[in-house]
Amino acid sequence: MPSFGNAYFYHGLLRRYVIAFGSMFDNLTVTRRESTGAVAQTLAIPIAYAPKESWLVRIKTDPQLLRTVQVQLPSASFELAGMTYDGTRKMQPLNKETASSSSDLNKGKMVYRGVPWNLNFSLFLYVRNADDGTQLLEQILPFFGPEWTNTMTLIPTIGTLIDVPVILNSVHQEDTYENNFIDRRALVWTLNFTMKAILYGPATTKGIIKTARTQLRDYETSAKTSLLVTTPGLNANGAATTHSNNSISTSLISADDPYGYCVDITDQTSGEI
After folding, report:
1. How far is CA 72 from CA 43, 128, 186, in A?
2. Cβ(242)–Cβ(262) under 8 Å?
C-alpha cells in the first residue's frame, strides 16, 4: 500500500497562490472630491486575509463609532473558499520538469508534471457609500475578460515559469444596513474568482546522462564494427562546439549551458578514429 508520509516535501504552493491573489489587489485607492471636482483626499485600501463574516463582526461591534481605533472603510479582505480537481487540464503524468543543480553540475533536479486544481477565491470590498464601491470595481473589472494571467515561479529549485489564469466568475452586492440610523452602514461587494492552479509532488535529484555510447555491429556476423560516443560540447569561451577535442570536460558542462553535440566514431575493425 502506498504511504504519503514516507518522504516529507513542501513547496509552499498554496501559500504562494494565496499571496499572489492578494497581491493583485493591494494597490487599490479611492478618491474624495470637493464640490469643485478637485481631489481632496486619496485613500489607499488596506487588504487582509479574512472571511467576510469576521470582518463584518469587527465593523458591527462598534456601530456608533465610539472606539478610538476603528475598522477603516473602505477596506478589503479575501479568502480561499475551496478547491476542486480540474480534470479538463490533466497532463501526461510521466512528463517531467527539470533543472540543473547549482551545487553539482553532474546532477539535476526533477519533478513530475503537476496536478491541476481550481482554487476558489472570494474578494470582499467594504465601503460606506456607493461611489466608493464603483471606484473600486472600475479598477478591477476592466482587467478581467473574464481572466487575468499571472506568471509565477512555483518551485524555485526548478525555476520553471508557469502561467496561472485567474477567472472572475461573479460580482454581487450586499447592504448590511438594518434601519438603525445611528448604526454604521457597510456595503459589501463580493467578487468570486477561480485560479487555475497546479500542485506538484516531491522534487528529486538525479544524475545527468552526459555520455551516450552506441555499439554498431555487422548485420550478418554480429561482429563489432564501430562505436559512436555522443557527448556535450562546449569550448573554453562558453560557445557550443561539435568537436570533442575543442571541448572542456563534460563534468564542467551544466544542463543549462548552450552546448553542442560531439559524436566520435571509433572504427573497431581497425582501431582508427
Report:
1. 10, 10, 11
2. yes
Residue 6 lies in a domain: no
Amino acid in the structure at residue 69: V
Rounded to whole angstroms, the Cα distance separating 271 from 173 reads 83
Domain around 115: 13-204
State which amino acid sits at residue 205. Answer: T
Q: Mark which of 204, 238, 258 sits at the end of a domain.
A: 204
Gyration radius of the chain over CA positions:
30
Model-level pTM?
0.72
Residue 70's SS3 state is coil
Which residue(s) pair with 199 in the sheet? Answer: 115
In this predicted model, what pLDDT tens digit does every residue of 53-91 receive, in sequence order?
Answer: 665 666 566 554 455 444 577 889 999 999 999 999 887
What is the C-alpha separation between 232 and 258, in angstroms, rounded? 9
Distance CA 91, CA 198 (A): 10
How far is it, in rounded angstroms, from Cα 92 to Cα 74?
A: 46
| 131-151 b/e (C-beta count within 10 Å ≥ 16 → b) | ebbebbbeebeeeeeeeeeee
- Give the whole-angstrom CA distance, residue 39 versus residue 34: 6
- Residue 248 host element (H or E): none
Could you tell me if residue 231 is inside a domain? yes
DSSP state of 245: G
